[in-house]
Automatic annotation (TrEMBL):
Belongs to the 'GDSL' lipolytic enzyme family. It comes from the Bacteria. This is Lysophospholipase L1-like esterase. GO terms for molecular function: hydrolase activity, acting on ester bonds. The lineage of its organism: Bacteria, Pseudomonadati, Bacteroidota, Cytophagia, Cytophagales. Residues 28-222 form the SGNH hydrolase-type esterase domain. Residues 1-19 form the signal peptide.
Length: 249
């Protein structure tokens, strides 16, 4: 009996050490989640507040870049250094689509290319014994004349869902979740989440700003919370590494 107890204690101690082993969460994608320069403030990518949700055993490495698509992220050699750095049990959160779907941009990728690129990210992550998570592109704030929110990512968001289902990859459907939030807030209140500034309101934008794609600090926080809410049931090991609230005295 004593021997069994000692073995059980050793196994528990070993499991605790594994759980506490540092891991890295890599974020790859576009400007909606990237780290912003001081000159761009108050524009904020959702990846910025997301980094503060986890304890000291997690390093969030935000490699997302403004204006990138699944294709340009590869051709600019932004992906291979991440692959080379991946360790077992690391995570890669993948959110593209905004720049892939616009045919007038140099970053445009066809639907077939988009799918192929997503598969490459997934397969090369798994080859390093790390965990891919696919995220549908976050919604734009685009309300019609009658006050209805338009679905601006229908095709490319569905491609992400399809790849996730076919490859059994955890999916965060940020497109649908952020659409639901914007509909709940409505055409006026939803402006509070985006980089909307009156002339003279902020020195970085002396002429003002009306940006219905990029978030301010509040909007980035809300989107990061949506991502985290979906991530919890998908990744119990990450949930165990969330910062715990400090109890008041």
């Amino acid at each position: 009996m004593l021997a069994r107890l000692l073995i059980s204690l050793c196994l528990l101690a070993s499991a605790g050490r594994i759980a506490d082993k540092p891991i890295t969460i890599y974020l790859i994608g576009d400007s909606t989640l990237s780290v912003k320069a001081i000159a761009d403030y108050p524009e904020t990518g959702w990846g910025m507040p997301f980094a503060y949700f986890f304890d000291e055993t997690v390093r969030v490495d935000n490699r997302a870049m403004n204006g990138r698509s699944t294709g340009s992220f590869l051709t600019e050699n932004r992906w291979q250094p991440i692959v080379d750095s991946l360790r077992p049990n690391d995570y890669v959160l993948i959110q593209f689509g905004h720049n892939d779907e616009v045919k007038t941009k140099k970053t445009y990728t066809t639907e077939s290319e988009f799918r192929t690129n997503l598969l490459r990210y997934v397969n090369e992550t798994r080859a390093r014994k790390a965990h891919p998570v696919l995220i549908t592109p976050v919604a734009r704030r685009k309300f019609g004349a009658a006050g209805e929110l338009e679905d601006t990512h229908a095709i490319y968001a569905e491609l992400v869902r399809t790849v996730a289902a076919e490859q059994a990859v955890p999916l965060i459907d940020l497109d649908r979740q952020s659409q639901a939030l914007l509909r709940q807030l409505g055409p006026d209140a939803s402006k509070l989440l985006f980089n909307h500034l009156a002339p003279g309101e902020h020195p970085n934008y002396p002429s003002g700003r009306t940006d219905d794609t990029h978030f301010n600090e509040l909007g980035a926080r809300r989107m990061a919370e949506l991502v985290l809410t979906s991530l919890r049931p998908l990744t119990p090991d990450l949930t165990a590494r969330l910062r715990q609230p400090v109890s008041g005295r």
